[in-house]
Amino acid sequence: MGTSSMYDGSNRSPLLPPDFNDGDGNDNDNNPIPPNTPDQKEENNDSGEKDQPEKENPSEKPSEKEDLAPEELSSQTPQYSSWTSAKNSMSKYASGKGGQNAKGNAVSDYVKSRGGSVNAAKSAKSAKSAIKTTINIGTFFNDVSKKGVNQVLEEYQIPIEGRKPKEILNDIVNILAPTPDINDDSVARKALINTMSIIYEKFDDEKQDISLLDSFDSDVSKMLITKYIETFIYERLIHDLGSRIERKAENSNTAAKLEKELKDYIETKVSTTLKDKPLSMINSQTKNVHVLVEGLYQQCYKVLEDQL
Length: 308
Known about the structure:
The chain is mainly alpha-helical. It is built from 11 helices and no strands. The protein folds into 2 domains: 56 residues, no CATH class; 163 residues, no CATH class. Helix 7 packs antiparallel against helix 8. 42% of the residues are buried.
C-alpha cells in the first residue's frame, strides 16, 4: 500500500473515535476558557463605529493583570504587550465589525500580545512542550521508516501481541506527548491527538494491523510535523481567545464557521512557510534540533504577526 492517500481529503483533521483515550480526562481541554477578565472598551472598527463595552460591575476595580496574556499572569515577565488588543480584535472579528482584514488582524494581534513571534515561539510551558512533541514526532516516524514499526515499538517498550492498532496508537501518543500535569501542556497534547487522527483513520479497516505503518514513506514524517505545527498554533489561539468567539458570534453555527476560517487561515500560512524547510532533519539525532524547531515556529508566528 502506498502513501498517496495520506495527503487526500480535507485539511481539517477528523475527531478521533469516542473510545480513543487521550489520557488526561480533562473536559476543559475540549472547551478551554481563558481567564475571566472584564472586557475593555473595543477599539474603532474600519467603518468608524465603536463597539459597546460589556457592562461591568462598578464596585469592582479593574486589575492591572486583566491586560496580561494568560501565561503572563503566572510568570509576570515584561516581554508581553497588552492582551486587550488581542481580545478586542478577536471580538470584532467574531461580531463581524472588524472589516475585511478582521481575521488577519485578530491573529496578528494575538501573536503581538504574546510578545511577538520570537517570544510566542519559545515562551511559556505550552510552547516548550510543542517543540518537544514536534521533535518526538520526527524521531518516531523517521525511526519507523528506517527500522520498521515492530523494532521501534520494541525499543519504546510498547507491546504488540494481541492488541488492536488503536490501543497501540494510544501508547504512541502517550510516548510522543505524555499526559499533561498542567493545563498548558494539554494544548500540545490535544494538537498531537488531532494530528494523529490522520494516522488513526488508516486503521478503520479492522483487518489492518500496526504493520501498516511500515508502508508509510519518509514524507509522512514531514507531513505530520507540518500538520502538528499548524494544529498547535490554532489550538493555542483557541485555548486563549476562543471564549471571545463564543461570546461575540451571532450563534453557535457562526462561531463554528469562524473557528473553521481561523483554522484554514493558519494552516495555509503555516504550510506555505514550512514548504521546502528541512523537516526531515527533525529528530533527536540532529545537532541543535531544538534550535531548528524553535526557529520554524518563530518563522510561522512571524508570518502570522506580519500578515505576510
